[in-house]
Structures are given as structure tokens and as C-alpha cells.
Amino acid sequence: MSYVGETLSNLLHQTAFFNLTWGNYVMILVAFVFLFLAIKKGFEPLLLVPIAFGMLLVNIYPDIIASPEETSNGVGGLLYYFYSLDEWSILPSLIFMGVGAMTDFGPLIANPISFLLGAAAQFGIFGAYFMAILLGFNDKAAAAVSIIGGADGPTSIFLAGKLGQTGLMGPIAVAAYSYMALVPIIQPPIMKLFTTKQERAIKMQNLRPVSKLEKILFPIVVTAVVCIILPTTAPLVGMLMLGNLFRESGVVRQLSETASNAMMYIVVILLGTSVGATTSAEAFLNLTTLKIVALGLIAFMFGTAAGVLFGKILCKVTGGKINPLIGSAGVSAVPMAARVSQKVGAEEDPTNFLLMHAMGPNVAGVIGTAVAAGVFMAIFGI
């Protein structure tokens, strides 16, 4: 009987109930909220489902992301090896390749002024950088945190790794991906605050047709120009443009389909679950993390506002030919931010179709955020 009792006691004490802290329960609740938003509300489910499930797993079984040095058999947890690919900048770069293979740069080529709107939306990044320094972050940590303002998870992970801020990578990545998913909630109030009904109802002229030659030359030219000026952006900008060249060249259909489908989804699974697994209660529930989340939100809001305000300037300059709403799409959340521009514009006039116009600033924002990361790396001599 004593053997049976001891066995049952050992089994009972191996359950998670005896090891969970109140912080673990809080993070498990947050994971449930994320799953609800993803599954019930449809907020970026491809991102939030794996992130939320990784969050759930690590707060039930912390060893799932334990390093080899932390385990008795010298073998790390499953998600530790996934996360190593984040730290080595492999997964963020592959994500960019997939995004490039899925993206049509035609709206940006047809309306080059979109580059300015994408650049204006990066204001939030540099504004948050100085705020982070005021809040006590060192210069490299401030740069890693501020890039959240671009609403670009892969770039946030990439820059944090390059600047040696792996200790902050988890909260930074979760904040960036969370704000990407919450674009439909965060952006519309800001867009309406800074625009009038008349401005939101502006109809833009149809974009000119873009030739196949232009679409083929675009990724080659952008890679050459950007990577010559900022070579450190090559892993992101280079992979983004390589994926797009797969798409537009028309001669490597199999590579384009693989990059935009199978490879992209595999990478999202690995990246999402590993990012979610960085949110253990011990690592996430602290003052530094709260500062990161708050700064990321402020940066994202500032970036949205800057894009809209610059759109208003262009609206005046062009005599009312540009709807300021498309400026909000200058953040990197592709294509969600462009869809939000369309939605807010359609609320004023259901016949107004802004989606393709907003895609220009949206894809320009992807390039802009990568360039902002390159600027920070150049500043710190990385």
C-alpha cells in the first residue's frame, strides 16, 4: 500500500497545479483572450493562434523553452530550438521572403508618392526611441523597443537580435505582433480624430497600369539602392525583394508558390509559437515589460497619426486628390492596415474604394521599417 500511495503522490505532484504561480494563471488567461480574439473575432489568426498557444504552453510547462544548460539531460526544450532561429535572424528573414512573394508592389510603383507616406509613418519609431531613453532604457534597448512602432514583428525580432537585446526580444515581439493584430481597433479612432468627413470621403483616381518590366526591375533596383546605402538591411530588404522577384519574373512559379505558401506557413508556426513561449510569467510580468508594451502602443499610435497628417498635407498640395486615410497604412501591418483604410473610407461613402491606393503606403511601410532598423544598426556600428 505504501508503494501505491507513494506512486500516486509522485504522479499528483508532477501535475502543473503544484508548480503554477499566480503569474502563470494571469498569462494563461491572457493566452485565452488572444485565442478568443483570433478565433472568434478573426484578428490576425495566423499570428495570434500560434503566439497564444505558445504562451499557454510555456506557462503550463516552462521547460518547453529551457536551454540545454537548464535541463538534466543536456537537451533543450522543443521551443528553445525554434526560438534560436529567431535569435539568429533566420525566421524573420524568411518571413520577409514570403511577404515579398505574396505582395504586389504595383500600387507603389504606380504612385511613387506612397513612399513619402510610408516614410512619414516611421515617425513613431524615432519618437518612441527618445521616449524610451527618457524612461531609462539604454540606447540599444531603446532602439529595439521603438521599432515596435512600425507594427512589424519580424523586423522587431531582427533588430533586437542584432543589437544584442535578446533579453527583451520576447516582450518586444509579442507587443509588435499584438499591435499588428489589433490594427482594426487601434487605428480607426486616430484616423477619424485627424480627418474630416469630407476628407474621408475623397475618391482617388484609378491607378495607372504597371508594366511587367517595371515590376521586374523594381525589386532589383530597390535592393541595389537600399543595400548599397544601408548594407545591414540586406537580410530583410534583400529577402523581401527576392520573394517579390520570384513572383514577378514569371519563370520560377514553383519557388514563388513555395515561398508564399508552404514555407511561409511553416515559418509562421515556428516563429509564432516560439515568440509566445517567451512570455513566461517570470519574464513577462515586470515593470520593464509594461514599459515596452506602453512604448510600443505610443509609437504605433504616433506612426498612424503621422501618416494621416502627412496625408492631409499631400491632400492640400494636390488639390484634394489624395485621401488622407491612406497615410495610416504607412505602418508595416500588411495588408491589415490597408484594409482598415478601406473600411474607414467606406463608412463615409460605401462606393469609395481605397484599398489599392492604401496598399502603396502599406508596402512602402514594410521597406521603411526595415530601413529604420538599418539606420539604427548603422548608428551603433553593427
Task: Sum up the structure in keywords.
single chain; mainly alpha; 21 helices; 382 residues
Structure characterization notes:
- This protein has 382 residues and is mostly helical.
- The chain has 21 helices and no strands.
- The chain is globular and about 85 Å long.
- 52% of the residues are buried.
Task: Summarize the structure in short.
By secondary structure, the chain is mainly alpha-helical.
Cα shape: globular
Q: What gap, in angstroms, lies between the N and C termini?
A: 65 Å
Count every beta strand, where a strand is a DSSP E run of 2 or more residues.
0
**Secondary-structure class:** mainly alpha
Low-confidence stretches: none
Question: How much helix, percentage-wise, in residues?
Answer: over 70%
Instruction: Sketch the major β-sheet.
Output: none
Roughly what is the average pLDDT, rounded to an integer? 89
Strand content bin: under 5%
Radius of gyration: 22 Å
Helices and strands, in N-to-C order? HHHHHHHHHHHHHHHHHHHHH
In DSSP terms, counting alpha (H) and pi (I) runs of 4 or more, how many helices?
21
Which SSEs are present, and which pair or pack?
Layout (H helix, E strand, L loop, with lengths): L1 H12 L8 H18 L5 H16 L17 H10 L2 H13 L3 H5 L3 H7 L2 H12 L4 H8 L6 H10 L3 H16 L1 H11 L3 H4 L11 H18 L4 H16 L3 H8 L1 H15 L4 H4 L2 H31 L18 H13 L6 H25 L3
Helix pairs in contact: 2-3, 3-11, 3-17, 4-17, 5-10, 5-15, 5-16, 5-17, 7-19, 7-21, 8-9, 8-19, 9-10, 10-11, 10-21, 11-19, 12-19, 12-20, 14-15, 15-16, 16-17, 20-21
